[in-house]
Amino acid sequence: MFVPDKRTLIVLTSLVAAMTVASAVLLILEPRPVIPAEQIMLSSLERDSDSDRQLFETTPPPTAGRWTAIVIHNSGAVQGSSATINRLHEQLGRGGNGYHFVIGNGSGMPDGQVEAGFRWSRQLVGAYAAGPGSDFLNRRAIGICLVGDFSRQPPTQAQLRELIWVVRHLQTQFGIPPEHVVVQMLPEGQGAGRYFPTLAFRQQIVQQLPASR
User: Fold this and answer.
1) What is the mean pLDDT of residues 26-44?
2) Which residue from 10, 91, 130, 191 puts its CA 20 to 30 A from 183's CA?
């Protein structure tokens, strides 16, 4: 399995800090063909072993060493859904929702609902990173977006619970260590947002859960 060295980790962090979720650069790029925004939805209240498996099931299955990191964003708006993200990313020429997973906050999609998008189910590269060197992130890091703007208000308890569950599942499945989980909510390296509980989140992902529950 590919394990990034210290230099790669520095590059990874620098790239995430430099990118903007809605980069103006993409507005001048030629639009790519739009891929249907199919998704698998899962509410924590409906969770069981079968639905867990369905959420993470992909065709084709992930190859060994395919994913080596996780990047977590917020949508930048207090309301929204995977559908609104999909429309925005279509307008930006990204060919539909650029993230692999979206987690709702109750304003636009159910609170704590996890949706696995077409990029995950088809094992396609992400389209959430922009700017120089973004190809590395899109190809190697799983993109997760939480609906919300954490410079204005915190994520909901349901969002945090589901984020931790998804991240720990992916860590276990792909052997991703905590230091390869990057929280970058705001553009231009401004950090996770004043209302995102970064320390509490990181304490929860140190110990990984079994891949199935």
Assistant:
1) 41
2) 91
Amino acid letter for position 19: M
pLDDT at 97 over 60: yes
| Nearest alpha carbon to residue 170 among 211, 125, 213, 110 | 211
Whether CATH 3.40.47.10 fits 6-21+42-205: no
18 to 5, 12, 79, 130, 141: CA distances (angstroms): 20, 10, 25, 9, 15
Residue located via tokens 């705001």 = 186
For residue range 58-70, what is the model confidence (pLDDT) as tens digits?
999 999 899 999 9
In the numeric block, which tokens belong to residue 16?
């995430």
CA nearest 53: which of 42, 65, 38?
42
CB 182 within 8 A of CB 72: yes
Q: Scanning the structure block, which residue is given the tokens 């992930």? A: 62
For residue 103, what are the β-bridge partners?
A: 114, 146
Mean pLDDT of 71-90: 94
